[in-house]
Amino acid sequence: MATGITTAYAAESSSTCDLKCQMTELPAKAETRTTVTTGQQTLTPEQQAAKQVAESPRYRAFVPSTYNGSVSFPLVVVLHPSGADENAPFMARQLAELAEKKGYIVVAPLGYDSTAGYGSTYPIVQTFAAKDGMSGITIPNPQSNYLSEVAVMSTLAKVKREMNIDASRVYLMGYGMGSIGAQHLAAKYPGEWAAIAPASGAVTAASYPFSALAANHVAALYIQGEKDRYTPANAVEDLYNQARRAGVDARLIKVPNADNTNAWVGALPQTFDFFSNHRKY
Fold first, then answer.
1. Cα separations (Å) of 196 from 51, 56, 59, 76, 182?
2. Model pTM score
3. What is the mean pLDDT of residues 66-82?
4. Which residues form a coiled coil (predicted)?
């Protein structure tokens, strides 16, 4: 199952979904008029869609050459920005190079599609430049947003089933829309992650349940490019400061000469170091 540094391993899709990913709740306004009975289950169209996404999540992964299945490896889940797909994170060669060097498996889920928001409904802090341009972060329709969350968590469950993953060393990061998704999934599933690293994307600090991270010992590394025109620096600083006040083991990195597209790349060495210093306990 090992690969070289410049390639990525794409596991075959599983035909089953574990109980956890099937039990993710539906959106509050889910359509329920049309149902289909499968065995003893009666499924709405939304449940049918969720089941299909959960059973065949689309993702790309990198497996270091030292992996042979006999020893558990740490896992990093990377969420792509709006308009991209599961291949986008691997366009940064440093990601696979560091994963190879430090012995990490890296997984990049598609989510439901290129613009679905990984389930987040937190208010987003952006400048006017983001609203006027093409690089801003927007929340998609509720159903696509929900299915994107299902896809990410199903990918995680699938990789855990099929590979020898160290459950105490599972990490989550993302940039742009992926940053918003990482913050949402960290708060909703805090038992899954040892640490997160959201970059170039901020939710409003007042709306975020930092207590969920603190109570479950989820560390947080906030990353901001000094030339980011879309995410205000003070919004990221607010997240960092409130996380610290809530008892989260948090750190803030400001990347010189980096914008919203490449700050996460510039911070990758520090990100892997941060992950290496944190285990779930």
1. 27, 25, 19, 9, 7
2. 0.85
3. 97
4. none
State yes or no: pLDDT of 210 exceeds 50: yes
Secondary structure (DSSP) of 29-71:
T---SS-EEETTEEE-HHHHHHHHHHHS--EEEE--TT--SSS
Residue 4 has pLDDT above 60, yes or no: no
Residue length of the chain:
281
Q: Which amino acid is at 122?
A: Y
Beta-carbon count within 10 A of 236 CB: 26
**In this structure, which CATH number among 3.40.50.620, 3.40.50.1820, 3.20.20.140, 3.40.50.80 belongs to the domain 57-276?**
3.40.50.1820
Q: How far apart are CA 119 and CA 140, in angstroms?
A: 9
Q: Are 264 and 223 in contact (CB under 8 A)?
A: yes
Percent of the chain with pLDDT over 70: 81
More confident residue, 70 or 37: 70
The pLDDT value given to residue 155: 95
What is the C-alpha R_g of the chain? Answer: 18
* CA gap 191, 214 in Å, rounded: 11
d(CA 136, CA 217): 31
Give me 105's structure tokens.
């498996």
Q: Give the helix ranges, DSSP H, for 127-190.
A: 128-132, 142-162, 177-188
Contact call for residues 189 and 214 (beta carbons, < 8 A): no
**What is the C-alpha separation between 87 and 109, in angstroms, rounded?**
9
